[in-house]
Amino acid sequence: MTTSNKLKIYLIAGEPSGDLLGSRLMRALRKKTNDNVEFFGLGGDTMEQEGLTPLFDISELAVMGLVEVIPSIPRVLRRIKQTVNDIKKCQPDIVITIDSWSFCARVHKALRKENLGIKQLHYVAPQVWAWKKRRAKTMYKYIDELLTLLPNEPQYFTPHKLRATFVGHPVIESNVLTAKGEDFKKKYNISDDMQVISILPGSRHTEVSKLLPDFMTAARLLYQQNPKFVFALSTVKTVANRVKHMVKKYNLPVIVLETEADRYSAFQASCAAIAASGTVALELAICKIPHIISYKVSPLTYFLAKHLVKIKYVNLTNIMLNKNIVPELLQEKCTPQNIVKHINELLEGKSLFAKQMQGFEDIKKYLSNGEQTPSENASDEILRLIKC
Predict the structure, then answer these.
(1) How many angstroms separate the CA atoms of 100 and 15, rounded?
(2) Strand order from edge to edge, sheet including 254-257
(3) Which site among 14, 17, 119, 251 is 20 to 30 Å from 206 CA-CA?
């Protein structure tokens, strides 16, 4: 504890998805402690809005792919050292890392070596059920507890000396469920006879560079079929300038959105969506927006992943339901023509649309745990661990 008797909590969120979880966790911890808490560490826009002053810009860490990450290694190693030094200076009651296990694990390992006696917790389990199962056997060495988003995940860690607690998936407390499509149409002057399609090319520079050209070419083909389409392209601050520059050449009715509120109201106004794989696909599922997911990495990364990843699906909706209801257009299948084909199939409202609507009904139930929000459940576990 500090002399002010406020809890000092050090948060590390290395990507926009973790930043969103972090902001909700900050709000829940304030509520649970009657605002008797102060925050330090790393985060993005939404955590900044909650009062965090980030140690550095997390966009430096947003690199995806087994091969793509290599040029960034020296910079990332410097940032790990800087983060550990900042934690030593801050002397928090607990260090909470959120997602991004590759970066966070190195921070935790370095902290353990320092033997500071600070509690260490990780929020969002590495997907050991998909690959690198050996991680589950060693995580207890570096953290005191793991909070999981999916109910099937603790079973992979508890046999290996690590307390793992399912708290629920924060996507179910998302404002996407209360957003209003009519607000979006009114704000951007979209008439009732126009149809909105959401485009979500990811939050990393590597994702945008690989996916956005195909997504925009697909948008152009769809617009040629029906000039009543308007495209809502959601992005984040870290890649917004790049996105705006890239979409200019397509000369299409594209609205680039940079806020969560706009993104969610656009979802509710959308008849379909084209998305990169990730948490955003769960948001689309819980608000029942028909969609496809598409993804590309470098050929070498894909080759390695095929031999390392042992799952039938990559999209969480398909994984949880164990059925292919959301088309997964990966690598060579990620083409404008394939995207258009599946979007048209969804817009026809036939079998694929029906399968999605039925499957999406079950997703929300699967992701909840009790009457509290997942962030409140997580806060309870964090406060319990601090008191131990």
Answers:
(1) 7
(2) 254-257, 229-234, 195-200, 270-275, 291-295, 328-330
(3) 251
Contact 260, 24 (CB under 8 A): no
In the sheet with 119-123, reading across from the earlier edge strand, the strands are: 37-42, 7-13, 94-98, 119-123, 145-148, 163-166
Task: For residue 97, give the amino acid letter.
Answer: T
pLDDT at site 70: 57
Spell out where 258-374 has E strands.
270-275, 291-295, 328-330
User: How far apart are the C-alpha atoms of 140 and 191, rounded to whole Å?
Assistant: 55
Residues 6+ apart with CB under 8 A from 2: 8, 38
Q: What are 289-343's pLDDT values in tens digits?
A: 999 999 988 887 777 767 666 678 889 899 889 899 999 999 999 999 999 999 9
pLDDT in tens, 154-176: 999 999 999 999 999 988 888 89
Q: What is the C-alpha separation between 187 and 295, in angstroms, rounded?
A: 31
Per-residue pLDDT at 68 = 45
Which pLDDT score is estimated for 64?
A: 45
Read out DSSP for 358-372?
A: HHHHHHHHHH--SSS
Q: Is 53 helix (H, G, I), strand (E, B) or coil?
A: coil
CA 373 to chain centre: 17
Residue 207 · residue 276 · CB < 8 Å: yes
Compute the distance between CA of residue 187 and CA of residue 127 in angstroms, rounded to an integer.
39
45 contact partners, CB below 8 Å, separation of at least 6: 16, 19, 236, 237
Bridge-based pairing state of the strands 229-234 and 254-257: parallel
